[in-house]
């Protein structure tokens, strides 16, 4: 089980986009992830008439290292660390370290 998953709201804690919040779009490998509207780079793209892609300068989201983001805790309004807890029925859930509340509703 991963501490940060697709669809989680995270806050960037290091780098040029420090303080920005967004949803995790996808995870790449063990330690990289894409966050919407964070770490955006300009890409010069050639037109491709076969696929109908226009040319020009486009904005492209680049991956971030997982250590540069923290999951957003709506109760405190800050980034938080994630831990695991095993319930009485044997299910394993993610919890916030600061207040012990479940991450998943």
What is the topological layout?
Blueprint: E1 9-12, E2 21-28, E3 32-35, E4 40-45, E5 56-61, E6 64-65, E7 69-73, E8 78-80, E9 82-86, E10 92-96
Antiparallel strand pairs: 1-2, 1-7, 2-3, 3-6, 4-5, 7-8, 9-10
Report the sheet with the most strands, covering strand number, pairing sense and barrel closure. Answer: 6 strands, antiparallel
CATH class of the domain at 9-74: Mainly Beta
CATH topology of the domain at 9-74: SH3 type barrels
Task: Count every beta strand, where a strand is a DSSP E run of 2 or more residues.
Answer: 10
The CATH architecture of the domain at 9-74 can be given as Roll
Major beta sheet, strand line-up: 6-3-2-1-7-8
Give helix and strand order, one letter per element, not per position. Answer: EEEEEEEEEE
Number of helices: 0
- Residues in helix, %: under 10%
Class based on secondary structure composition and strand pairing? mainly beta
Query: Would you tell me the overall average pLDDT?
Result: 94
Spatial gap, N to C terminus: 16 Å
Strand-residue proportion: over 45%
Low-confidence stretches: none
Nearest-angstrom radius of gyration? 17 Å
Taken from the alpha-carbon principal axes, the silhouette is elongated
